[in-house]
Amino acid sequence: MRRFIIEREIEGASELTQEQLAGIASTSNAAAASLGVPYHWVQSYVAGDKLYCVHVAEDEETVREHARRGGFPANRVTEVATDFGPHTATSVAVAVR
After folding, report:
1. Of the four, 15, 41, 56, 58, which is 20 to 30 A from 29 by CA?
2. Per CATH, which fold does 2-96 belong to?
3. Is residue 94 very low, low, confident or very high in pLDDT (cuts 50, 70, 90)?
4. Residue 76: in which H helix or E strand, if any?
5. What is the rounded distance in angstroms from the CA atom of residue 56 to the CA atom of residue 23?
6. What pTM was estimated for this model as a whole?
7. What are 37-67's pLDDT values in tens digits?
8. What's a Pfam family in this record (predicted)?
């Protein structure tokens, strides 16, 4: 399974209410369940007029099919190459020693 970041352009996204976000989540869950293949929505972030969503799937085509079934835009789908965070500084420093 691979991780993808999906950029969704939605005008006024930062003004969506909790009820609207709950509706989007419900639609996303139903779309994922309808795929019939392993699919996992990890997290989404609202920033300005965009949603940034992290999903786990076999391939980009499955991510785009999820968006189509849910009626969501998927303006950009990018596979995550790797991740890092504050812990990375420590793990690399230990490995270099």
Report:
1. 15
2. Alpha-Beta Plaits (3.30.70)
3. low
4. strand 76-79
5. 21
6. 0.87
7. 999 999 999 999 999 999 999 999 999 999 9
8. SCO4226-like
